[in-house]
Amino acid sequence: IEQKGQAAFIPAVRVSCCLCVSGMNAAVRATVRVGLYTGAKVYFVHEGYQGLVDGGDNIRPATWESVSMMLQLGGTVIGSARCKDFRSREGRMQAACNLVELGITNLCVIGGDGSLTGANEFRTEWSGLLADLVRAGKITDEQARKSSHLNIVGMVGSIDNDFCGTDMTIGTDSALHRIIEVVDAITTTAQSHQRTFILEVMGRHCGYLALVTALACGADWVFIPEMPPDEGWENHLCRRLTDQRARGSRLNVIIVAEGAISRDGKPITSDQIKKLVTDRLGFDTRTTILGHVQRGGTPSAFDRILGSRMGVEAVMALLEATPDTPACVVSLSGNQAVRLPLMECVQVTKDVTAAMAQGRFEDAIKLRGKSFENNWNTYKQLAHINPPDVKSNINVAIMNIGAPCAGMNAAVRAAVRMGIIQGHNMLAVHDGFDGLAHGQIEPITWTSVSGWTGKGGSMLGTKRTLPAKMLEEISQNIAKHNIHALVIIGGFEAYVGGLELVQAREKYEEMCIPMVVIPATVSNNVPGSDFSIGADTALNTITSTCDRIKQSAAGTKRRVFIVETMGGYCGYLATMAGLAAGADAAYIFEDKFNIKDLEMNVEHLVEKMKTTVKRGLILRNENCNANYTTDFIFNLYSEEGKGIFDCRKNVLGHMQQGGTPTPFDRNFGTKMGAKSVMWLTEKLKQCYRHGRIFANTPDSACVLGMKKRALTFQPLAELKADTDFEHRIPKTQWWLKIRPIMKILAKYDIKLDTSEHADMEHVLKKRSLLTK
Fold first, then answer.
1. Contact at 8 Å (CB) between 252 and 283?
2. What residues form DSSP beta bridges with 543?
3. Which of 55, 187, 215, 330 stands the most exposed, by the fewest C-beta atoms within 10 Å?
4. 688-689 and 692-693 beta bridge pairing
5. 464 labeled part of a ligand binding site
6. Are 23 and 303 in contact (CB under 8 A)?
């Protein structure tokens, strides 16, 4: 295709990291398919930089079918290797020669900061390398003119999440899945035997995995390189473990990053900690070092979607690049894809290392980014502060509303403990608004919620009943139990129920208390938040089930599966699972379709069966269309596909609501629960007048939600305008804009909307403030 004066846009996809991680294949697949979709010629570079230097069969054209059935594979199918040759100018000159001979002038690099720095150096000296090649007679002047500049775009693949500028690197979430699986297995045996377990996770220079693991499992202590423990930590640790046992805890969990250090820079090892605990306390202590288990396994749904979105954004960045555009890295901020200058990110990453070396640990935490800082602050608040002796005389009630989902208990636990830390009396309301109306209210303590982060469902009990018909009883119980604030954790019913309580303030003064709604539902349909607690767990359940379903057709071939997902009228699960599992189509309520669309999808599958990929996957949201039911679509595909493919259907049902929460849902629930109580504490101070709490302003009843890049509080009343109450969904939903990616990756000829492409941003503003 014609592009900025070049005859053709020819990207090469290569994985240059020394160690591969889960999720890279999704990025490779997306880059190849979107590149081909734009009319480009795409090449694989096998074995990283070594393949670039060696050339020959290591640089091969990529086809649409060559990236099929790789989403569920860990590692990288195009290989990766360490390369000494590329570090020399001679090696880079040979690499440049190989690229010029094939007419490749765009390079997409997936790796860590070392690999990306090498790519930028390659780009910087490109002109000089071409001049040397011309002088040596290895390329002609015409070849040098056609390949006058090299565009570079990077995607970060690292389980450590140690690259500044992005909230999550490809591979991190999958590594957390492996770690949490082990933690869950260990905690059961530890509880049985009353043991202390020390778990060492990867992270030589970055403590992200250790920190999030500690948050997700409620660890008693975490050691990370960015924030070494204070002097005398040995006494503090032993006191903490003893206190936990005195409170009735049957196990202790200590998480250690492999790069953990003391204040004077000396390593803190898991063996050292084990000796300390055994010698001083006499506790039965075990050590587990996870090692390379963390790098392997099937990629999580999050990593597949992240890799796919990054791959698309990488191709767009290369398409729009000019000779003056700096090498960029595509990254994630909240739920937004952003582009950042590669070397700015590398510089800030180096600044973190420098800050740690100089003992500026607070700066190191800040330089890691807002996400890391929030995780650290939440962990400190929940684990490092003893409950105050002075009580606030404030009673805060917590309840679950709607269908149960994984992660609800993590939010309850964090809210309860944060409330106790603030000096409040925490009250548990069982069975939702029914329980609030019938007085099923009791105190809940610090130890009551021990171990709740890893439990699925709702430990408090939950019902879908709305409060409108029980307002009198509810107001009486609020007065009887002297409830000053309310935390409502649940789905669309929690949102509507909160609205009904706010509207009842005119008649019942008891309802004039601060309230916060925390979205928790597999459907992800609560207005005011881009994500709901529980949706990630459901998404992983659907994705892993689709993997198994597709694999079942490996021997039979020519088979199409129709899978029905939950979500009510919200198509989030069907769309995102479609992207993560590589579906051919996903039918949802928000994206209207008719019989012609169904016919086109059948024809598309008929054509697909003529290729080497002889299986299809169709997802259908349960309420996408009243007439085009799962049975109707199954019968239609079966009839139209006669003699070409056969069909099978699966209704996943309530398995999507069960299971243990994913690391994302545990972490998200913990942060949401803690933040909600901190907000209520401030709001209670503002609403305290004449010796009592009185809150009747719109901003005293809010939804706490993730919007684009931050956790924000939005008044319930203000969100009504953005709510489709009939279909129980928000009127605007961010994920609809990434639906075309799924269709393009399934080889549909549609237009990709690039009107909201990511502009180049900068990360050095924060760095300059810290170094002044």
1. yes
2. none
3. 55
4. antiparallel
5. yes
6. yes
- Measure the CA–CA gap between 238 and 231, rounded to whole angstroms: 14
pLDDT at 14 over 50: no
Among candidate residues 495, 191, 205, 196, the one with its CA nearest the CA of residue 353: 205
**Which of the four pLDDT bands, split at 50, 70 and 90, describes residue 756?**
low
Q: Given this model, what pLDDT does residue 772 score?
A: 37
727 marked as binding residue = no
Give the 3-state secondary structure of residue 716.
helix
168 is an annotated ligand-binding site residue: no
Give the span between the Cα atoms of 119 and 15, in whole angstroms. Answer: 11
Mean per-residue pLDDT, 3-7: 38
The Cα–Cα gap between 73 and 296 comes to 9
Backbone phi, psi, residue 13, to 5°: -100, 125
Listed in order, strand segments (DSSP E) in 211-316 are 221-223, 252-257, 285-289
| Residue 124 is assigned to a ligand binding site | no
Residue 247 counted as an annotated binding residue: no
Query: pLDDT tens, 525-549?
Result: 999 999 999 999 999 999 999 999 8
Euclidean distance between CA atoms 89 and 97, whole angstroms: 12
What amino acid is encoded at 235 in this protein?
Answer: N
Tell me the pairing of strands 723-724 and 729-730.
antiparallel
- List beta partners, residue 201: 257
Judged by phi (left if over 0) then psi (alpha if -120 to 50, else beta), residue 291 lies in: left
3-state secondary structure of 648: strand
DSSP single-letter state for residue 470 = G
Catalytic residues: 160
Question: pTM for the complete prediction?
Answer: 0.92
Q: Is 524 annotated as a binding residue?
A: yes
Alpha helices in 42-85 (DSSP H): 48-54
Spatial contact of 253 and 233, defined as CB atoms under 8 Å apart? no
- Residue 420 buriedness (CB in 10 A; 0-12 / 13-18 / 19+): buried
- Supply the DSSP string of 291-335, one letter for each residue: GGGGG-SPPPHHHHHHHHHHHHHHHHHHHH--TTSPPEEEEEETT
Which amino acid belongs to residue 729? I
Number of Cβ within 10 Å of residue 325's Cβ equals 17
Report how far residue 317's alpha carbon sits from residue 328's, in angstroms, rounded to the nearest whole number.
8
Predicted confidence (pLDDT) at residue 770 exceeds the cutoff of 60 = no
CA distance linking residue 367 with residue 346, whole number of Å? 12
| Residue 293 counted as an annotated binding residue | yes
Is 656 annotated as ligand-binding? yes
Q: Is 294 annotated as a binding residue?
A: yes
Give percent above pLDDT 70 in the chain. Answer: 94
Which residue, 391, 394, 419, is CA-closest to 483? 394
> Is residue 108 helix, strand or coil?
strand
Q: Is 6 annotated as a binding residue?
A: no
Select from 612, 581, 611, 599 the least CA-distant residue to 641.
599
Residue position matching structure tokens 């209670």: 684
Tokens of 120: 């930028």
* pLDDT, tens digit (0-9, with 9 covering 90-100), for 383-413: 755 777 778 889 999 999 999 999 999 999 9
Phi and psi (nearest 5°) for 619? -105, 145
Sheet holding 106-111, edge to edge: 59-61, 43-45, 11-15, 106-111, 151-156, 328-333, 336-341
- pLDDT exceeds 80 at position 255: yes
Q: Positive or negative, the Cα torsion across 162, 168, 170, 172?
A: positive
Query: Shortest CA distance to 534 belongs to which of 350, 675, 371, 664?
Result: 664
Q: Is 143 annotated as a binding residue?
A: no
**For residues 392 and 513, what is the distance between their CA atoms, to the nearest angstrom?**
16
pLDDT per residue as tens digits for the range 85-95: 899 999 999 99
pLDDT in tens, 548-605: 988 887 766 789 999 999 999 999 999 999 999 999 999 999 999 999 999 999 999 9
Beta-carbon contacts of residue 387 (< 8 Å; ≥ 6 apart): 420, 421, 423, 446
Token couple for 223: 């050691």
